[in-house]
Predict the structure.
Amino acid sequence: MGLDSVEIVMEVEEEFQLCLPERGCEECRTVQDLVSLVHSQLKSSGLHPCPSQCGFYILRRAFVTAIGIPKASIRPDTLLETLVDRGDRQEKLNCVAAAIPPDKQNFRERDICSILARPLWMSRLVFLVFPAITLPTLLILFFILMGLGWESLWTALLLSLLSTMAAMFTASELTEPYRIVFPKRYSAIKDLLPLVVMPQTKTWSEDEVFSRVQPIITDLMGLKPSQVRLESRFIEDLGMD
């Protein structure tokens, strides 16, 4: 198989959500060889590809569809930081979420952008430094306004806590647009696998495999379905480079 086979192999891998061995692909001379290779991989993987592979191909298709990233640049270990620009990261992630079929979504009502975090310095400022300064300041202020009596201390403390919590909530909402950092637990494509639903097992026949492989070859090579038969040779009959 020649250069055209790269795109065909990637499309076949995505269609069946499995990874074809490179050596096996190089030995394919006919459509039947490719169909048999795919069928053997489906059988050897327990009648269905690994669930994590299924999830990866669902995610890869979503990223390609939503952002236009080349398939070849997306691997399980690819860092999300390199795939999605910071400038419009939240918007692009929402587009990726929309590109995942509803029956494959495992995040339900959850906004996929919730996996993003604020920069570390901002999180420390909002949730540590800000309350550390605000709480004692308000406590002193309320204590003075309420007459400096010990009987008013608990009331002042309660009011200070409630006011600080309200201020932290406001600060959190105001800094929401700055959630643009992928945390360590969501640093690579493989870390997003829990967000997709893994498919159920299925037993494939060679005829079913061919029914999926044939349109892939015809679409990528501009051929008619009648030209792509099991005995068709990729180079001699189909004109593959």
Remarks:
- The chain has two domains: 4-111+189-227, 118-178.
- The radius of gyration is 28 Å.
- The chain has a mean pLDDT of 85.
